[in-house]
Amino acid sequence: MQIVPIGAGSTERPSVEIVGAKAANLARVAALGLPVPPAFVLPVELCAAIVDGDIKARQRLDDGLTEGIEFLETATGRKFGDRRAPLLVSVRSGAARSMPGMLDTVLNVGCTATAVRGLVRITGRPRFAFDCRRRFLESYATVVLGVAPAVFKTLRDELVRSEGVAGEQALDGEALERLGASYQNAIDDERYVLAETPMEQLRAAAEAVYRSWGSDRALTYRKLEHLEDLRGTAVTVQAMVFGNSGLLSGAGVAFSRDPSTGADTPVIEVMFDAQGEDVVSGRHSPETEEAIIRRLPDVAVQLRDALSLLEGEFGDVQDVEFTIEDGKLWILQTRSAKRSPLAALRFAIGLVKQGRITPAEALRRLHRVNLNRLAHARLADIGEAALRGVGASIGIAVGRAVFDSDSAARLAANGDPVILVRPDTDTADVAGFAVASGIVTAIGGRTAHAALVARQMDKPCVVGCAALAVDAAARCARLPTATVKEGDWLSVDGETGTIYLGRGRVVFDRPDEELAEIERWRNNARELAPIPAPAA
Amino acid sequence: MVLYWHRNRRCQPVKSEIIQELGQSDLLLPARITEGLAANDKVKVRLSVLQAAAGHARDSNARRFELGGECRAAGIDPVTMELLVNRASPSADGGMHAPGLGDLKTAIWGDVATMARAVKAGDKAAGDLALQRLSALEKALQLGSHDDVAPEQVVRLTAIADTAGDSLHQLVMDLHKLLNGLAASHAEHVIDGAHVYGLLPQDRPAIEAFMRGIAATAPLKFGHPGLTTTAARADTRLTIQNDIGETDAHVVVIAVEPDVVTVTYTDVHLIRARFFAGLFKGFAVEWSGLERKSAAGLAEDGVFFLITGRYRTANDDSRDLFLEALGASLVFLIDWNKARKVLRAWVSKNDAIHILDWAARHRCGHRGFLELGGGEFVAEAVRHAASTRIGFGEQLDRVLGRDAAIDFLKTVLRVAAEALLQGNSVRQARDRIEADLVRHLQRVDIALLAIVIRQAGLAREIGAGIAHFLDERRLHRQFDGEVLAKNARLIEEKADRIAMETRSEIARLDADRNIQRLVDQIENAIDELEQAAFIASLAPHALATELIGPLRELCSAVISGTEAAAIGIAAAAEVPEGHRVDSEDALAAVGRLIDAEHQADAAERKVTTNILSGEYDLRTSLSVVELARALERATDRLAAFGHALREHVLAELAG
User: Fold this and answer.
1) Is 70 exceeded by the pLDDT of residue B293?
2) Does the interface predicted TM-score (ipTM) exceed 0.85?
3) Alpha-carbon distance B259 to B582, whole Å?
4) Domain-by-domain residue ranges, chain A?
5) Structure confidence at residue B303 as a pLDDT band (50, 70, 90)
6) Consecutive H or E run containing A400
7) Which of B274, B468, B573 sits opposite A247 (nearest CB)?
8) pLDDT for residue B295
């Protein structure tokens, strides 16, 4: 089978229809000379046949994986799952249009017990090796074998408690080694069989990622976003680079401009000694660009340069996933940033001013943005904020508090606006998002998948409210000065990241200056040629 | 879904009832036809006995009983029948009386009913009509169950129907004809060993695929009966059934339809049912009934579990591959629970299952192992090869380590199967597994080296913590020194515990004493590092850059040393495999450990020089010098570790 190589000197520019948007972009990033871990792509066209269990398609998949792994081994000088110098890979999805967090990813594939020894052998860091192993087990078991994520969360929480540390990041190597063993036992207890060899793991992971195309959440998302015509997902297999190999390593997400307000400053979130899943899962609160400048000033400069270069190449504001391994920056993914309508307007004006796009192109991009809704809302007559977090999607929402998706749907059906209040952001809550007027979470960063989705749906969203304790089972949430019960009114300001008790009055300010600029473009354009009218 | 099935319904009927329960009665038709034809033979004999008895009642000097041969052929006890005939006597109303006559009448009705039901299984309308006729005859004749019969009743039973009405004999003859018709249309064929009925030509490839799988692994049942396959077609569906190990309630029924293959599997052991389903992880089968919760609260005894799997087939090739895999998997279910219990004596419950799973996937299975004696086969090898190292009743994973114990038992299963397949002697097989056991015992040292790696990792974490602390101090940022000291203390306590346990393990396993030195040296390094973290936590907040610089160099030397220690051990663990690169890497790590000590010496001197040539207060001077000394001592310990490592590697190379 023909695989599509990325990185390691390959200059191929495969089409979005064949390899999906993510891989097509990654190939362009590599071609720009930015550091991209080598990868190969199995095409979209295999997706339907694999989902159908077609034997010939599986044979082609096998052939593609074998060929691709040879490519990665040559490019990295390592051997897949080896005991001396192991190559591990990530297995990622990627459709022709971005579906953030809706399809599955399996990380650290190839991390067999033997490969753990190999990781120690090349780094001398047992904690890192055990961390990779437990991450692999959790990722593989939940995605490929279908073990409930709660199984692992329980074991992790128990260990954090018994070790007397603040969180999983504070667990030492010996504890992580035991955590891996307890994960393995849990998988065995469920009578699931863990693939023994790296290639078996890879094959199962690739099939699982293809199959995630048909998952409920993916179907729901495609329906909500009118993406039902998409033909399937590609699968990208990429050499792992490790953000979890020490304090000079980390993983993060960077926006070339602020996707919430539209301001022309990059928004960068990073977690040191962590892998990318930690940042986007919404389970932890990340640090800002300041932390990179402090620890790795050169990397901070490289990252800014890369953001600028990528924005120029793609002619749009970019949402970039990166990893730092032992002080070296790697770009793992880039895509056009999801944005609020106000940010869309400001981006368009900013990009035109910098000469990156023409006014006509800017108008085309704004065609689907509802400019009438751009009036900037703010709350009035509401008193002091009861809670503060990180504004992840701007806008004002006033509604009644609910603590799970089902209640959200029920209350919303009564005609009341609802505010979904959750302990963390999980894309499984997407159905609740759809009916909620606003979203509030206790932990998570602006770059969490759920924050991305909230922005795309144009729902005000505040994440990382450290002082919020949600008890979904008891249908209440504790704030520093009050307890909110299901059905209580809350007012949320997604720009300032503040939450107020009660029903605030909403006052609108319009971005008149920017709208006037757009109007000028329109007038100029009309003089030249007819253009489509804006959406109502 | 879980069905209750009470074990008191034992023997043959259980399986057929299950199949019926599963809605697969078409598979049972051939057996029903056979039963119907047998009932036909019986009823004719019984009617003849009735006539003979009537004759004897009329004339006690009539011919003696001559139906012995017929009785035997039809499976009826001839002595009982002869007695009945000989004792038949006329009764007052002109009829006859004979002890046992009531039973005979009942048996006659029973035979005809069996025939009628057999017809119904293949032709519902005809069967229903026959049952109606039978019921009408029973009502008209009023035979009762007493030991008397009226003369005209004998006639009505045995005569062919005249115009006056129906007779039992007429009904029997009609049923016989219908049964012969059904038998002809459901003639049994054999395809590659499968007994098949009523198939269409296009069914052949599917059967052949399934039987290909059966044939591929059937030799691994080693004399055990079972794996009998039957197949039949009804409407749009081809149904294949296999008896597996011929035990009750253990059966698999496979329905093959144009786009889907449905597997229905019943078992008294849910755990084996899950094992079975697990063998098809490579196929996208949707299973139901596997969840533990669906079985919650049900005692294992007295129930069987039913699981179903649906496999959507893209084309005939994918269908046939799946069927072949199904066929090939069944031999691994025979005596599975028995093998699991045997293995359970040596390793954990989960590992026992894991080994059986491995054996199935690698097509060696466990039957050979059981055939060669199972637990006793292993126990004897242990007694021969390792009686001093492995105590009676001791779990192998405790002695060899989990991975090695599993690996050894896998070898046992593989060798047992190979020996039987190749016709080798049991003795030869035992020699092979003893050799493997000895090899694993030699590798116990590797499990102990894994502990040293763990310790080196803990040492590195304290070193990295101090380095992070110094970096933050350099940037004048807040850093909680107490947390640093507390974490270091916790790690040190943990390392201490591990070292103690390891010492007793080394003594218990009689392992290489040089490993003890490695464990001790790394533990000493951890002690020094804990001391360093403690002092660091007491250092003044503002430290001059010229002091932080060399302290940071000391930390780098410590970190580099701990990493070299871990790398060196990881490489040393592979040395017995005989690749030069491993011993080279291990010795290179020793070099790095020595270098780290030299770097640390130099950095410590720099610290001392800076303190003594500068104007520092006592708290600063004391804490910085003590911190530097503790870090330097840690690298000394690591260098000593390096020497012990070199000796270990050289001894391995020499051995």
Assistant:
1) no
2) no
3) 54
4) 4-240, 241-337, 341-373+510-528, 376-509
5) low
6) strand A396-402
7) B468
8) 38
- Three-state DSSP at A14 gives coil
Q: Name the pairing type of β-strands B194-197 and B188-191.
A: antiparallel
Q: Which residues of chain A are within 8 Å of residue B490 when distances are taken between CB atoms?
A: 163-164, 172
Provide CB contacts within 8 A for A279, sequence distance 6+: A251, A252, A253, A269, A270, A271, A286, A445, A447, A448
pTM of the model: 0.67
| CA distance, residue B243 to nearest chain A CA (Å) | 25
CATH topology of domain A241-337: D-amino Acid Aminotransferase; Chain A, domain 1 (3.30.470)
Q: What per-residue string of b and e applies to B327-361 under the rule 16 or more CB within 10 Å gives b?
A: bbbbbbbbbbbebbebbbebbbeebbbbbbbbbbb
Whole-number Å distance between alpha carbons of A144 and B161: 71
Average pLDDT, chain B: 84
Q: Looking at the domain assignment, is residue B12 inside a domain?
A: no
Token code pair at residue A196: 């023994």
Q: Which one of 3.40.1280.10, 3.90.550.10, 3.30.1490.20, 3.40.605.10 gives the CATH number of domain A4-240?
A: 3.30.1490.20
Residues in chain A: 536
Number of helical (H) and strand (E) elements in chain A, helices listed first:
18, 25
**Same structural domain for residues B92 and B116?**
yes
**CATH dotted code for A376-509:** 3.50.30.10
pLDDT in tens, B103-150: 998 999 999 999 999 998 888 889 999 999 999 988 888 888 888 888
Say whether both B345 and B481 belong to one domain. no
Of A317, A361, A360, nearest in space to A337 by CA: A317
Select from B309, B332, B355 the last residue of a domain: B332
Query: Structure tokens of B345?
Result: 């004596």
Pair of tokens at residue B510: 């009689």
Of the candidates A40, A53, A50, A34, the residue with the CA atom closest to the CA atom of residue A6 = A40
Q: What is the CA radius of gyration of chain A?
A: 23
Of the candidates B278, B318, B567, which has its C-beta nearest A54's C-beta?
B318
Range with top average pLDDT, A297-306, A444-453, B193-202: A297-306
Q: Is the same domain home to B384 and B360?
A: yes
Phi and psi at residue B266, in whole multiples of 5°?
-120, 145
Q: How many domains does chain B have?
A: 4
Q: Select the highest-mean-pLDDT range: A306-315, A498-507, B540-549, B595-604.
A: B595-604
Decide if A226 touches B, using CB distance below 8 A.
no
Residues near A512 by Cβ (< 8 Å), separated by ≥ 6? Answer: none
Contact A52 B460 (CB under 8 A): no
* pLDDT at residue A136 in the model: 96
pLDDT at residue B298, rounded to an integer: 35
Asked whether residue B518 falls in the same domain as residue B593, the answer is yes
pLDDT in tens, B260-284: 998 888 787 888 888 999 888 778 8
Flag whether residue A246 sits within 8 Å of chain B, measured between CB atoms: yes
Query: Both B343 and B459 in a single domain?
Result: no
Instruction: Mutate one of A58, A127, A174 to test the B interface: name it (highest B CB count within 10 A).
Output: A174
CB contact under 8 A, B457 and A295: no
